[in-house]
Amino acid sequence: MGDIILTMKDIDKSFPGVHALDHVDLEVRKGEVLALMGENGAGKSTLMKVLTGIYKKDSGTITYEGKEIEFKNTREAQDAGIVIVHQELNMLGHLTVAQNLFIGREFKKGIKIDDKKMNEEAKKLFDRLHVDINPKEKMSNLTVGKQQMCEIAKAVSFDAKVIIFDEPSAALTESEIEEMFKIIRDLREKDIAMVYISHRMDEIKVITDRVTVMRDGTYVGTLITKDSTKEDIINMMVGRVIYEEPKTESAVPEDAPVVLKVEHLNAGKMVQDVSFELHKGEILGFSGLMGAGRTETARALFGADPKESGDIYINGEKVTINNPQDAVRCGIGYLSEDRKRYGIVVQKSVAENTTMASMKDFMSGIFINKKKEKEVSEQYVEALATKTPDVDQLVVNLSGGNQQKVVIAKWLTRDCEILIFDEPTRGIDVGAKNEIYKLMNKLVAEGKSIIMISSEMTEILRMSDRVVVMCEGKKTGELDISEAKQETIMNLATREIE
Amino acid sequence: MTKNKKFLGLKGREAMVLGINIAMIILFSVLSPTFRSYPTVISVLDISYYITLMALGVTFPLITGGVDLSIGTGLVSYALIGGYLVVHKGMPVGVGLLACVLMGILIGILNGVLVAIMDLPPFLATLCTCMITRGLGPALCGGMGISWPSAMSDQGAFRSLFKLTTADGTIVPIGIVSVIILVIIMSFVLDHTRVGRYIIAIGSNKEATRLAGVNVKFYHMMAYVICGLFAGLAGVAYAAYVATIYPGSGAGFELDAIGGAIVGGVSTSGGVGTILGTFFGVFVICLMKVGLPFIGLQANWQQIFTGIVLIAAVLIDLVKKKK
Amino acid sequence: MKKKLVAVLLSTAMVFSLAACGGKEEKTTDEGATTEKTEATDEGGDSKDYHFEVIVKSFQSTYWQAAVQGIEKACGELGVTAESNGPATESDIADQVQMLDNVIEKKPDGIGLAACDTQSVEKSLQAALDAGIPVVCFDTGVDNAPEGSVYATVATDNAQAGAVAAENMFPVIEEKIKAATTDAKVRIGEVNQDATAQNIQQRGQGFIDKMIELCTGAGKKVAVVGNEFYVNAAEGKVDEAEAEIIIEVGVPAQTTPDLAATEAQKIMSKEDTIAIFGSNQVTAEGLIQANNTLNKLSADPEKGIVGVGFDAGTPQKEAIKNGQFLGSVTQSPLMMGYECIYTLTDICDGKDVEDIPMNGYWYNADNMEADDIAPNLYD
Predict the structure, then answer these.
(1) ipTM of the assembly?
(2) CB–CB of C292 and B142 under 8 A?
């Protein structure tokens, strides 16, 4: 571990109504990988945005290579050698790898772009990183992992001295992560400083040297990775000990009636002959790896995507579901994994989102009864403890967890008996997570039935009464919670993969 | 950017556009003595009727994130066909007016089917219906210009729906009353009915609206049907206003209406907009049409000035949003 | 492009079959969009086997319908065939050029052309010349046409037609003109559709020049204000301060009825305005529309502003009948179409041809029904 290259001291930043960074400190050294951890909303991204000039800090100092600096934009930061590798890929699919790497700073021969030189330079760069990518390949033909490598290569090509990785592994497979780690170790050898933002505790342990933890916009502390345990870090992150005890046995009585029965559902490659039953008052967990076909199953069931074949029975009666309207009529509500795209209408108010699915209950003749709309949504705001100043607030201004509650309110208003929660806590911080869990438990206690799709093993084990496991579009197993263990589920989830 | 700020019961944008209107009236009145006269008021209102009606309609497709380019050539076509029935086929004026509105609804349904059901991009679909309507009028009416009965004849009584001349020669612009009533009704439709609610929802997030179990195809289509209905009504207003309707004209009329709506705060990317904003926005356009010649600006400069004002109006909004 | 061709072929075929079914051709009003086929009635003795293509400016106004009537009439008399075509509006310049290029491909015996834009058609005229197809321009001349491409031009002498309006307007307002001083100026208005089409330019200028001449003859000085083009083009004018008479020229930014009416209203609202001239159908109707609000027009100078129009159309004819307009000037589109076909036939027969200037005719409430005027006064 080398000398300090970057120091951020007493950084303060407020947005209207939010104190995003409260006198935060950060110190990065040459040739180290520093993990930056914290719950969602702890201020990690904001801090990095202040560093690279996207946000202007209110107060505090940034010292880089011994000089106090303040970048006006990312371009300036790049030129100085501070580069971010973003979580979402910023690549242009129609251009080649080399064209992407050098976009905005193309080599020129007269007024003509010198593609040959760009390809050569790209090749040199990849060789240096020991990556095997053809610079002439179209970006869209690469796997997500390879694209991520390109992002890293691009960062390196800026002559970076500090590279910030913002959840780089989110979309990568195990082997791709391994390959990325190789590059990171390599860069560490070259004395480059790296900040690694991630939620994955295992990765933190493997790749980082120190861990800096943030909570609610404040700096909590820094640990040496190899000297600390997972629990130490988590405790610093949440400031309290959370119990994520797995359920040991199903809370559903043996004779609970079947409210939903799906038989031989087929919809493309991702849903092949899927059958299952859902009992009244049950939380049925759907587990599996990314791309196992769980969301696709839910969407086909809900009528959001066309299905090829399959029968659906509600309370023993066969129903036809060809579109979401049919599904809603049958009392099924779907909470999408991608709230912003599919769940809420962000530019509309809490009240308007709440009544979206059950408009006809709020009509006086041809007019909307806004008074009733307001009353009902206020009831749900209270019942779900949604944090919003009032129900006229636009949902775009709410946090992820509260947006999720608005979506739940939408389906409760509709009086749906069957709710499909697709990744209910994705992008929601730990505190709000617990509230959502409590709410789900309350709903099943009231006799509703829930299908919960989740990629988080702890969530599956904590919430489900039964677990359906999928792999490659097929159902590979069904377990009662009493027999469901992390290992058994993982086994089933990878059964189809050679 | 928490809640919409209000001023005298108007949303920020509406108040701003109203302010632009007032500023223009003051500017034109100072620069041109002949501008500040009753006949000028009448003529601003005269040209505002058909543009306002078009704009009220096109606000709905705009809010869904689409557009309807067929309204300009459409309204001319409808007025032409209605007039043809009256002048050349000897039908009562009422039938001609009804035909005008019905044609509008028909083309609205066609647009709706193309966009909402067959999923054509609105720009493309309505560009095609724009061409169709442009040819349709002349094709059905033999390519001739049509003059609806003039205000002086008995049959021309319908013209006084918009402009009433009393026995002593005073002109009363009663059209504005109907237009304001329609503005109130359509505001209500947009804010207080399911159609309006869902049209806004479709504009801000169509997929989320669909997944909420809303029949998005139907409501999406309704936006175009409403637009068609108003294009038909605009045809009536146009027939009542102009002396002769020329076949093949009307291309570009829609831009006055769309421009007015955008000045009034309707977002072209959908989801945002109010009827009152559109109403005020159209008046900005109409005031410029009448006021700029009055202050002695010559033809080419009028167009340059109009373009600059529109850019400024939209920019103010963007700058405010960024803050 | 291909689709367009197919559409044209299809509609031509349709009209063909219609005409065939109908047997005897009546005044065709149902031509598909803008295509019309005129069949020769093969009765008249020495039928000639010529086929001409005619391209008009548009079918926008009934004006062009009258021209097509003239074309039909000439075809019937001569036993030749002609196909008339035109873009949707007079401002669809590119469409018209495309149509012209298409008909050159068809190699007709001759082309009749009323150009929307005199410059844009020059290239196509060269192509026609290269292909050996004679062209006769009608309604609008093409000044810079390639040498030898345009055999003759059949057009209203627009300067003369504009002058006719001034000559007929002047006697009525002469008293007021004579009474004018630099302190009590009088104003004569003119509204022109645009400042780029040659015929409208000439017409507007013809009016202004004649009016200046007449006023100067009455011992008065004249200033021209308004649209830059006409101000610069006018001859014999003086500065506004020295003048007793002001001619104000308005040009709407676009060719729409509302903008034409606004320009008219702007001029008519001024206290010192005594007369106004609308130099084509759209602007003449603009005067009428403005008058609906202002109620100032009258054929009697003591009662209001003397209105003079151009061309015809129902509203204008009504305005003349009920005494709002003093009168209007009409061209003879029918005769221009008619002469165009005759000239083309003469060319094919190998005769020498020359330009045929057509007159503008004054009409008012008294002579509207006269035999030599009425046929040109379309509705």
Answers:
(1) 0.82
(2) no
Strands (DSSP E) found in chain B: 6-7, 10-11, 164-165, 171-172
By C-alpha distance, the chain B residue nearest C252 is B299
Does the distance separating the beta carbons of C60 and B249 come in below 8 Å? yes
User: What fold does the segment set C2-156+332-359 form as a domain?
Assistant: Rossmann fold (3.40.50)
The residues spanned by each domain of chain C are 2-156+332-359, 158-330
For testing contact with chain B, the best of C31, C91, C265 (most B CBs within 10 A) = C265
Answer yes or no: is pLDDT of B237 > 90: yes
Neighbouring-strand partners of residue B189: none
Q: Does A319 touch chain B (CB under 8 A)?
A: no
Domain boundaries, chain A: 4-238, 258-493
Encoded tokens for B102: 């019905």
A351 min Cα distance to partner chain B (Å): 12
Q: Which residue has the tokens 């995003």?
A: A20
Write out the CATH class of domain C158-330. Answer: alpha beta
| Residue A42, C-beta contacts closer than 8 angstroms, at least 6 positions apart | A214, A215, A216, A217, A237, A429
Residue A360: list chain B partners with CB under 8 A: 194
Using CA atoms, how far apart are residues A113 and A125, in angstroms rounded to an integer? 19
Check if A4-238 and A258-493 are the same fold. yes
B145 and C313 in contact by Cβ < 8 A? yes
Kindly report the CATH number that applies to the domain delimited by A4-238.
3.40.50.300
Interface mutation vs chain B, best among A334, A348, A397, most B CBs within 10 Å:
A348
Chain B residue with minimal CA distance to C267? B294
The CATH architecture assigned to B49-310 reads: Orthogonal Bundle (1.10)
What does the block give as tokens for A21? 């960074």
- For B25, B26, B27, B214, C351, the CA distances from B30, given in Å and listed in that order, are 9, 6, 5, 53, 65
Domains C2-156+332-359 and C158-330 share a fold: yes
Nearest-angstrom CA–CA distance, C250 and B292: 12
* pLDDT tens, position by position, B62-89: 999 999 999 999 999 999 999 999 998 9
Taking only the tens place, the pLDDT of each residue in C217-267 is 999 999 999 988 899 888 888 888 899 999 999 999 888 888 899 999 999
By the CB < 8 Å criterion, does A365 face chain B?
no
Those residues whose C-beta lies under 8 Å from the C-beta of residue B154, and which sit 6 or more positions away, are none
For chain B, what are the domain ranges? 49-310
Interface A–B counts its CB contacts (< 8 A) at 82
**Contact (CB<8Å) B46/C258:** yes
- Specify the fold of A258-493: Rossmann fold (3.40.50)
